[in-house]
Amino acid sequence: MKIAMIGLGRMGMNMARRLLQSGHEVVAYNRTPRKTEELAREGAIAATSLEEVAQKLSPPRIVWIMLPAGPAIDDHLLELKEILAPGDILIDGGNTYFKDDVRRAESLAEKEIRFVDVGVSGGIWGLKVGYCLMIGGPREACQALEPVFKSLAPREGYLYCGPTGAGHFVKMVHNGIEYGMMQAYGEGFQILEASPYADALDYAEVAHLWNQGSVVRSWLLELAEAAFSKDGKLADIRGVVEDSGEGRWTVNQAIETGVSAPVITLSLMNRFRSRDNDSFSDRVIAALRREFGGHAVVASKKTGPGEV
C-alpha cells in the first residue's frame, strides 16, 4: 500500500522503516527536514509540506500521524482537513486521549474523511519485533488498513477494539497497567537493596532468574536485566520518573466510572513524588522506561547535570 507517515520521532521513524521493509510505499514528512531526508535515503518518498504529502498519494489517501498528544495533532488535522478529500483515511497513532478522538472524528466527518485511532505499544524495539496495535474507528476503514497493520504488528499483534476512541482507550488502560507493574518491580528491587543481602546480590542475575518460569516473568524483567547489566546499582541516573499523560487519564477514567484502581493511582502518585527525591525504586522505573521506550533519564549528580 501507499501511505504517508507524518512525524518521524522515535516511533514514527521506525514504523515507517518497518513498512518500507515490508514493501509498502511510504511518503515521509517531518517538521524538520533532516529526518525526512534520512528516511528518503532508505527508500521513502520525501515530502516538504502537507500539501505535497497529499499530492504524492493516490486516492483514497492514507495518512498516519505520529505526533505528541495535544495541540500539534489538532493543528495538523485542521490543515489536512482542507487538503484531503472525501474517502481519505487519517490515522492518529500517538498517545492521544480517547475523548479527543471523538471530537476530531466528528470534525473530519464534515468532509467525509475517515478517522482511525490506533494505540501503539512497542517502543524502540518495535522495528525489530513489531508493534502491538489497538485499533478504533469505522470498521470498514480499519479493514481497508489491514495490510498496514499486518506489516507493523507481530503475529496476532493487532486488534479492532471498537468504534472511534476504542483503540486509544485500550492503550490508555494498557499504560495504566504498565505504571503499576513497573512500580511493583521498582519496590521489589528497593526491598532487596535495603536488605542485609544487598552486597551479595547481582540484580541482573536476579531479574534473569525470575524470568525462568517464575510467575512474575515478563519483558519488563528482561529490560531490568539489561539495565542492571549496564550499571548494577543504576548509579548513572536519578530516580526521576516522568508521566506522559496516560496514567492520569486512566486514573481519571477510574474515578469517572467508579472503578477502584488503587495500584495504578498510587503508582501515578509515586511518579509525582519521584521528582522530589532519589530512591532506588525510582531509578529502576526510570531505567525501565529508558530501556523500552528510549525515554530520557536525568543524570545522577555523580555523572554530572543534564540527561543521559
Structural features:
308 residues; alpha/beta; eight-stranded mixed β-sheet
Low-confidence stretches: none
Structure annotation, total helices: 14
Instruction: Determine the N-to-C terminus distance.
Output: 39 Å
Mind describing the biggest β-sheet? 8 strands, mixed
- CA-based gyration radius: 21 Å
Q: Could you say which structural class the secondary elements and strand pairing correspond to? A: alpha/beta
Summarize the helices and strands and which ones pair or pack.
Layout: E1 2-6, H1 10-21, E2 25-29, H2 33-40, E3 45-46, H3 50-55, E4 62-65, H4 71-83, E5 89-92, H5 98-109, E6 114-121, H6 126-129, E7 132-136, H7 139-144, H8 146-152, E8 158-162, H9 166-193, H10 203-210, H11 219-230, H12 246-257, H13 262-273, H14 280-293
Parallel strand pairs: 1-2, 1-4, 2-3, 4-5, 5-6, 7-8
Antiparallel strand pairs: 6-7
Helix pairs in contact: 9-12, 9-13, 9-14, 10-11, 11-14
Structure description:
This protein is of the alpha/beta class. Strand 2 (25-29), helix 2 and strand 3 (45-46) form a beta-alpha-beta unit. 50% of the residues lie in helices and 12% in strands. The chain has helices spanning 10-21, 33-40, 50-55, 71-83, 98-109, 126-129, 139-144, 146-152, 166-193, 203-210, 219-230, 246-257, 262-273, 280-293, and strands at 2-6, 25-29, 45-46, 62-65, 89-92, 114-121, 132-136, 158-162. The protein is built from 14 helices and eight strands. The chain has an eight-stranded mixed beta sheet with strand order 3-2-1-4-5-6-7-8, sandwiched between helices. Helix 9 (166-193) packs across helix 12 (246-257), helix 9 (166-193) crosses helix 13 (262-273) and helix 10 (203-210) runs antiparallel to helix 11 (219-230).
